[in-house]
Write a structure and sequence with these properties.
The protein is α/β, with parallel strands linked by helices. It folds into two domains: 125 residues, ATPase, nucleotide binding domain (Nucleotidyltransferase, domain 5), CATH 3.30.420; 173 residues, ATPase, nucleotide binding domain (Nucleotidyltransferase, domain 5), CATH 3.30.420. It contains ten helices and twelve strands. A five-stranded mixed sheet has the order 3-2-1-4-7, sandwiched between helices. A five-stranded mixed sheet has the order 10-9-8-11-12, with helices on one face. A two-stranded antiparallel sheet has the order 5-6. A hairpin with a 2-residue loop joins strand 9 and strand 10. Helix 6 crosses helix 7. It is globular, with a radius of gyration of 20 Å. Bound molecules: zinc ion (ZN). Zinc ion binds next to loops. The site of zinc ion has 6 residues, from loops.
């Protein structure tokens, strides 16, 4: 943490995408100068956000803007959250004006994947690139496209729904109504589901250390993989291959300069990054693959709060 001088401009970013509200004041370099975390209180969200913003401004009064990242689809022309599976209380008509009224400063609301993408682009693994595709792999799978320094949000704000590209035409039904979306195989809950199915069906897999712990998580799979458990390594590798298959399509479509991958599942490090790169190389049009860099994000769980703070700053400029 750097020391805050009160004359330095600050920008607040708030990430509502997980069970924990993550709030930060960042400076113009995207460095966090103050932070707060608290379990999200969905039934009093506006009041909770107002309170956290008040605390942060108490420490650092020179706050110019507030950015709020939400786990849902945000229509950028109307500033409305129109769908959120994880935080339904954000889906209401007047959320943006409620926040603005409560804060008394300019407020921007953005989808969490777009926010994290912007953070990585400005001050993380995307720094120095002109165009970037971002993927976040956690409880769900999100994506975002940045072209020429700007988020490409599409006709109505929903571009980059990477988790819902079809990876298996015979696959499972997805929350979105399609079947066989990438999210139905490679998100954290689906890594657990696939691992459980395999452990139940295959005798040799039961030698895996995972089988000892009945209620394991995707983090446990990654942890055991890093400790050399063959079964867990195979599960992570297969997940990487599925993601790499999706990335190959993105490379062919956009011929993009850089792909940055973040989210909790990427904590598996090279164990997942390498199969993603290998599969993208195997499937993409070769000149497209050769023109790209595929990297893990560097901002970790702060990507969305840093990103949405900088988005709000740049939208106000
Ligand atoms: Zn889907």
């Amino acid at each position: 943490m750097t020391s805050a001088s009160s004359s330095e401009k600050g920008y607040i970013g708030i990430d509502l995408s997980g069970p924990v509200l993550r709030a930060a004041i960042v400076n113009d370099n995207g460095e966090i100068i103050e932070r707060r975390e608290a379990p999200i209180e969905a039934d009093r969200l506006v009041a909770q956000v107002e309170q956290v913003v008040g605390e942060l401004r108490g420490v650092h009064p020179n706050v110019e803007t507030v950015g709020i990242a939400v786990p849902g689809l945000v229509n950028r022309t109307t500033d409305r959250v129109i769908a959120s599976r994880d935080l339904p209380s954000t889906v209401r008509e007047d959320l943006h004006s409620e926040f603005t009224k409560a804060m008394g400063v300019r407020v921007e609301i953005e989808n969490d994947a777009n926010a994290a993408a912007y953070g990585e682009y400005k001050v993380g693994a995307g720094r120095g690139s002109r165009d970037m595709f971002y993927v976040t792999i956690g409880e769900g799978i999100g994506g975002a496209i940045i072209l020429d320094g700007k988020l490409w949000t599409g006709a109505s704000g929903f571009a980059g729904e990477f988790g819902h590209i079809t990876i298996d035409t015979e696959g499972l039904e997805c929350d979105c109504g399609n079947t066989g979306c990438l999210e139905t195989v490679a998100s954290a809950p689906n890594i657990v589901r696939r691992a459980n199915e395999r452990l139940n069906r295959d005798g040799t897999s039961s030698l895996s250390r995972l089988a000892i712990n009945k209620n394991f998580t995707a983090d446990d799979v990654a942890h055991e993989a890093r400790n050399g458990d063959d079964f867990s390594m195979m599960m992570i590798e297969r997940t990487g291959k599925n993601i790499g298959t999706g990335v190959a399509s993105v490379l062919n479509l956009l011929n993009i300069e850089r792909v940055v991958l973040g989210g909790g599942v990427m904590d598996a490090g090279e164990l997942i990054l390498n199969p993603i790169i290998q599969e993208a190389r195997r499937r993409a049009f070769q000149p497209c693959f050769e023109a790209t860099q595929i990297l893990a994000g560097t901002l970790g769980p702060d990507a969305a709060s840093i990103g949405v703070a900088l988005l709000a700053r740049d939208a106000a400029a």
